[in-house]
Amino acid sequence: MVINVDIGYVNARLRGMKSRLLDRKEIEKLIARPDIDALIAGLEDTPYKEYIEKASLSYSGVQCIEEALRKNLAETYQLMLRMVEGENFEKYIKTLLAKWDIQNIKTILRGKNIHAPSDEILECLIPAGELDEVTLIELIRQPDVKDVIDLLATWNIDYSKPLTQKFKEYNEKRDLWILEFALDKYYYENALSIVTGNSYDAKIVRDMITTEIDVINIKTILQLVRDSIVIDDTENILIGGGKALNIDILAPLLRTRTTREAVRQLDKTPYSFLAEIPDEQLAAGKISVYERELDTYLIKKGIGAFHGDPLSIAIAVGYLWAKYKETTNIRIISRCKTAGILEDDLTEELIYV
């Protein structure tokens, strides 16, 4: 039975949820906490209280915070799915959240590839898509990469298709990148096939997805250039359908000698800000500064959807990214506290919108 949902009511709830996200002052209070234990205590004075208390029964230190964030983010996104059930844009929200399914499958494959303990793999998963925790746990129980893929195929889960097609190549080269790229390519091609048409909702979601493709492709190129890997076959390393950067624009970047040279070739694109990063911020051989700036660009764009039509998917898209930003910032703070990083340096790592 199709449920007719009042989009005004849904968006009002989402705005209420947004109002409970931590503002800049609250984030700064967390930054000021002297150590990880004090940070945990500080989080108990926020909406994370329930999750911190539950996590503290089994974990301590940064692991306690990671577990609390993991559970909270998964439950929040699952709540969103229930809220939009029956709404016209339900398929778009499912498409956006399916990225977590992809990420979780990648994490399981990586774990199996290095024979990581099952509990360590589980701690890294966020069941925020359609693959729930029970399903993910069953996948973790499989002994190796092939068995994980076979079980996905047995369950007729679509993500098994690209993995099955590329397994022989992976098995010959033992390069997990082959499977990971196949998953990414499958996801984005499928997502673009869903967000067709000229409706306001489709345009907003398509804009985000195509921008993500741009960002992924730039990151891939920077990694290859950094490692001095020359690849002419762009079909197996780059994803088509980007917003501002098609394959023809990106291909010449693969032939540059340095990451600095690569980003300079983006000077007439929306990503020209990468070339403006001062040389002193770029440690030799590292691309983390570029990656952080790209992530910040994407998050800002997502949160900017809040300014769209209040009776559209814009509010939901904005909230998805605002929640992700909050989780990312808390995770950065907790890891920096554990590593003894100074407050000024820590603050530079955060994403403010």
Structure notes:
With 353 residues, this protein is mainly alpha-helical. The protein has one domain. It is 63% helix and 0% strand. The chain starts with 6 loop residues before the first helix and ends with a helix. The mean pLDDT is 92.
What's the arrangement of secondary structure elements?
Elements: H1 7-19, H2 24-31, H3 36-43, H4 49-55, H5 61-83, H6 90-113, H7 118-122, H8 133-140, H9 145-154, H10 160-173, H11 177-194, H12 200-226, H13 247-250, H14 259-264, H15 288-303, H16 314-339, H17 343-349
Helix pairs in contact: 1-16, 4-5, 5-16, 6-11, 9-10, 10-11, 12-15, 15-16
Short account of what is shown:
With 353 residues, this protein is mostly helical.
Pick out its properties.
353 residues; mainly alpha; 17 helices; 0% strand; globular
